[in-house]
Task: inverse folding
């Protein structure tokens, strides 16, 4: 098993932007998107996230797995929510409505009615979920993992927390190698993950011969690392980082744009009371 | 050395990083191994790692192992970032960590039962927070999030945690004796 990240340089404009500015943009967009149920406003956000996706130069092949995962999951959720259960989230807004299809449920002597409003609501939900997904799916493919520590330090995280992130990323290759060695060693002893018919409890228990040695070895190594860091007086002074980040004009523009989006969204939602569920023909 | 529930020194920094890397790599590895026979419900035995790190090293280590480990696992698998589910994983490590000072002997049945109790609390609160966030983010109704998010996730995480955390605790008691901590 080779544990590597999805990141590879794409030489895109997005990668030239400071990662701190990109995180600010992502969270301002997230908090703005979730304020609205109006398809027209959500379409604007969708276009912005789509532009970001295309500018990133990330290919479909790279992100296929994530997209399939999110599309399947959201389709099931929206199907159950919209078609089967009652769509309670926007409550009275779409109760009743124009019937599109009805079916008599024999046992309960009642009718199931699919309305046009429910379908529009499903479409709105899709647009909202896909917009959020496009925001976050591309991050691991366009952000260098070596910069996570310094990025979060730059965003105001405490030194020790940022260093924990940095250290965690550095441990990954060692732990992946240990896992491989353990897996090979256990297989040499006749260990099989899937051995005939087993119930779920037995299957989970069978992971113990893999998880226990890897975890315990890492803990033992951790004791040595902690001692070595203590000997070097870790945490007594402010840390310096190998990589340094500096905001450029473009980064300030993106941060300004992000804040503007959030402020406008908050004003539309709470100042003008706009952004509830909308469909054509609705005032 | 006197233990403190909320300290975050060198040892905690190292073990939070190790916990996160272990959770991330083991999630990815068990994903690749594709445990069969589980239908469409993802079974991640590695979720026991943040729970155990919480019990063994405190709530802050458990929380960081969970939140950062889930981010790493998703990064390695290429699933992007899902902040509210990352938070849920953090809470699953945080709550077992609250029993950290109460664990005297990792092999002792009563101590294991205490940890199991906190694992249950952690899973219920953590997944509860993520499921409630889905109401807000995805706009699904309560029945949908309960049936789609809460029940499947709680079931699989509880089964994983309740089976694997005691195994890890017993194994750790030997390590603890060896390292003299």
Result:
């Amino acid at each position: 098993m080779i544990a590597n990240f999805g990141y590879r340089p794409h030489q895109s404009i997005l990668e030239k932007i400071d990662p701190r500015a990109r995180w600010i943009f992502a969270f301002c967009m997230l908090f703005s998107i979730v304020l609205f149920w109006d398809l027209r406003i959500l379409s604007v956000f969708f276009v912005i996230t789509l532009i970001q996706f295309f500018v990133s130069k990330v290919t479909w092949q790279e992100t296929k797995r994530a997209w399939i995962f999110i599309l399947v999951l959201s389709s099931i959720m929206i199907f159950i929510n919209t078609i089967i259960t009652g769509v309670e989230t926007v409550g009275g807004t779409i109760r009743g409505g124009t019937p599109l299809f009805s079916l008599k449920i024999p046992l309960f002597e009642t009718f199931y009615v699919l309305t046009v409003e429910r379908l529009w609501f499903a479409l709105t939900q899709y647009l909202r979920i896909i917009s959020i997904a496009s925001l976050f799916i591309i991050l691991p493919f366009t952000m260098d993992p070596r910069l996570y520590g310094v990025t979060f330090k730059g965003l105001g995280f405490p030194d020790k927390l940022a260093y924990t992130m940095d250290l965690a990323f550095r441990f990954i290759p060692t732990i992946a190698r240990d896992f491989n060695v353990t897996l090979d060693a256990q297989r040499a002893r006749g260990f099989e993950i899937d051995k005939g018919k087993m119930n779920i409890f037995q299957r989970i228990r069978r992971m113990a011969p893999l998880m226990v040695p890897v975890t315990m070895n890492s803990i033992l190594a951790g004791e040595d690392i902690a001692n070595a860091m203590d000997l070097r007086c870790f945490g007594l002074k402010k840390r310096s980082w190998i990589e340094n980040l500096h905001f450029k004009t473009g980064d300030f523009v993106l941060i300004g744009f992000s804040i503007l989006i959030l402020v406008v969204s908050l004003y539309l939602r709470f100042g003008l009371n706009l952004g509830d569920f909308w469909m054509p023909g609705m005032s | 050395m006197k233990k403190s529930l909320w300290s975050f020194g060198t040892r905690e920094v190292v073990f939070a990083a190790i916990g996160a890397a272990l959770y991330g790599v083991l999630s990815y590895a068990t994903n690749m191994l594709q445990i069969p026979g589980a239908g469409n419900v993802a079974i991640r035995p590695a979720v026991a790692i943040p729970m155990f790190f919480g019990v063994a090293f405190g709530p802050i280590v458990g929380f960081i192992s969970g939140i950062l480990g889930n981010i790493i696992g998703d990064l390695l698998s290429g699933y992007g970032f899902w902040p509210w589910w990352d938070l849920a994983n953090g809470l699953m490590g945080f709550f077992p960590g609250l029993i950290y000072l109460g664990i005297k002997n990792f092999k002792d049945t009563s101590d294991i039962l205490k940890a199991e109790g906190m694992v249950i609390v952690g899973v219920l609160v953590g997944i509860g927070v993520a499921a409630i966030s889905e109401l807000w983010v995805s706009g699904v109704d309560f029945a949908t999030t309960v049936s789609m998010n809460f029940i499947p996730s709680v079931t699989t995480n509880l089964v994983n945690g309740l089976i694997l955390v005691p195994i890890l605790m017993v194994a750790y008691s030997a390590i603890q004796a060896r390292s003299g901590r």
In short: Residues 36-41 of chain B have pLDDT under 50 and may be disordered. Residues 10-179 of chain B form a domain with the Arp2/3 complex 21 kDa subunit ARPC3 fold (CATH 1.10.1760.20). Chain B has six helices and no strands.
